[in-house]
């Protein structure tokens, strides 16, 4: 029985606190990617006025685009409206000429190629621009003495390959719009005209995981055909329409960073992440899956803007018997997208629930975060007793 007593002491000692996780980014005077990560440095009785949003904003770089509403040079009206891109399907009509008229696909080099005519530049241009050049080309090639009636209309908008980088959660080249494989949307083709929303800038940002909370939306860069355009997208969070231009194959989008966490960007919008997928666990003992703890697909997917306490509630770590369930703790594992350094934050759930300044230490959940909860001390002691009981039975059977 001496062995059992020694083992009992070891197991009970393991119930003692193991200390808070150490982090490289939360040294004294620092608080990591968001101020809500910082350690709680005052008691509940000494809780002061909320200051995490102010701490986050203090390190922000100035807006590259200046004050909101400032007209930014480099944004041309040529970006607005529908623009042709490679592989778009267009219908061309030239008066009553049935030989030259017909349906054409914008070629890989971005030109409209028609019989008996030199290629006409189409990439990034409007249909009216192509109509004007086509009229001039018909006269220059002496196929007409006077300019005929010309009509160029988009029949089907092709997909576009666009590169997105900078302060987005998943920077990569994205494919926007179009239909999969070699399918044809015949219904749309039979009706002239086409919607371009699937190729808009907002669609590209969503396809790249959405903008991060450190993004500088005042000066989003769009590079096209060697030219740089600067767009102010802050209107989407100000209740106004944003500059949602149509993108073309070959465009490059770059979202700069203010090098700080902006609380007001942590809400749903046309350019925010569509939701947050979170890895979760509240298992008392290791298991093959989370199904027995009701942790499934619906729990892992949360609205953008969800905070730590909301995730803990989703994880079934709050409530129950106060005698046995109180004084649990929750652990949040996140990663600083700027420095690419991971961080582990542990909070006492009951203390957080009862703090007047809980928002100061209630981090926002970011895409890819992990959340786990630890049982209360009473639950841990009960688990030790269960293990000791099993060991005691084994010892008796061996004697």
TrEMBL record:
Give start-end of the signal peptide.
1-19
Q: Does the keyword Signal apply?
A: yes
Q: Which GO terms describe its molecular function?
A: polysaccharide transmembrane transporter activity
Listed InterPro entries: Poly_export, Poly_export_N
Keyword Aminoacyl-tRNA synthetase listed? The answer is no
Stretches assigned to the Polysaccharide export protein N-terminal domain:
83-154
Coiled-coil residues are: none
Which keywords does UniProt give here? Signal
Name of this protein: Polysaccharide biosynthesis protein
What organism is this sequence from?
A: Parasedimentitalea marina
